[in-house]
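ugh finaly. both done.
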Amino acid sequence: MPLTVSSLIKYCRSRSLHRPAYHQTSWFRVLVAAVFLLLLWGLNRSTCIRHQSLCTNRIWHKLLYASEGSMRKTTLAATLIVFAGLAGCAKVRYPNYYELGLPAPASTSANAVSIPGTVSVREFRAARYLTKGPIVYRPEPEQIAFYNYEYWAEDPRRAVTTAVIHELQHTGVFESAGWFDGRGNPDYLITGSLDRLEEVDSGTSVAAEVGLSARLQDLKTGAVIWSGSSSERAAVERRSAPGLVAEMSRELNAAATQLVSSMQKRVSATDLASR
């Protein structure tokens, strides 16, 4: 695709989300510190020159003390001004926290044919880089990076598990569905993993990608009845962290729906009744 001014502007805007403001960079702070030291050196040099020219007699020597006192006040004032400027430039930027938007639990579909028995869903697993806190993006297919100030308010694994449970309850695949807490005696167990939850950058385009995989196990026999995966990817139209999170939420709900639908097609009430 030919490089145009509009595509270059879009590319720069997409990159600007991951970079701190200029006044928060190390080079800017070093520059301000260097200017401050240069100012002190100049004031000290001026004091030495005055000292040499005014120390020829006692009268001028007294004047020197008065001049040095004034110079100290000037130096102190300059120091306070520079440090005040540094404090303003290095203003603390606090992180922003986001949560994945999940639809409210819907009532079971009236036409649903439930499979006899109960199912519990164990909290989904995920790679460590997806659960560290910062939102993940990929500037290159093989490179993983993190937003500086954009964090998840809740562990994404919990949000994914909740989305799958809500979908199971809505579709009515089983008589009941809930969290696996180690207590109780469910008939079936779903385990799974969050494989992708990240922004993917490709040239001037930015996309949100979500990937899930899971399996259904009969706890009475220990047999794995079903296993499958789902993935969703869509372009992020609103180039901002809230826009990215909103798109991730939509893709997560779509991936959970796809996963449960695959399970529902593979496993029927007749199949499980014969086990």
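ok and the 2nd:
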Amino acid sequence: MTARADGFFQELYCQKLLQGRVKAPAPPASDEASEDEDEDGDADEAFSREQRRARKHPERFTRDQLEALNLLPPAAERISVALAVATAAAKAVPPKLGQLSPEGARFGKAINALMDAIVTDEVDGADFDEYVRSTSWQFVASKVTVEEATVAKIAAWPRLRKYWSRLRRRICSCCGKGHLDLSEPRLLVCAGCGEGRGVARYCSETCQREHWPEHQKSCMRYHEYTGKAHGLVETKAHRMALQTYLNENRAEGWNVTTDHILRAALKNEIEMREA
């Protein structure tokens, strides 16, 4: 009788369990399970602690770190939202008042937000600035307002950044004409610049002559390093070291120009080690 009763109640319990009317008892926790729970708890506590720090001092964290802490939406989502806001703000700017209107002020804020969403780091920001300065509006569809063209130009950067080191070779530093097409030939290069970001390139000798009064302020004039001074610019590493030397002096507040560096080098007053 007892065995039959036990079987009956066992069957009834199973039926209720299947119907969700009772909960199955949790299995006894093993030592390994307890250790895993402790580790998970420690990780959650550390994550929460780091989140609190990031909320209090977000400037101390990179964008990737803030994303990992769930304090920023993914980059694609940020760009999509910022682009939609900037596009709407561009269309709202009145043609005559432009940036002087309240709509123009809102557009300025929307553009800054779009750039913040698109630019990934300091190096990318330097390339982006060069792209914005050097490319003309010919790369944007015609029959649009200046504001709409600005949005379109900035929005194209994620697609172009991977190829910018090669695309920059096809855009004139004077007139801005060129091609964002890698199949097109590269332009003439200023002999005094070397290579990399900031190198002047021209579609014609006329553009080079016209641009020289402005370009000579930043041109390193490597082609004028003769005699022993040529050793300072003989390799790419030497030229990078010389550029670093110039940048460091300027950062320290010295009014140093490329012409000062050249004259000192020709007099053998500068000794540089290869970077």
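summary for the 2nd one i guess: Confidence is low (pLDDT under 50) at residues 1-10.
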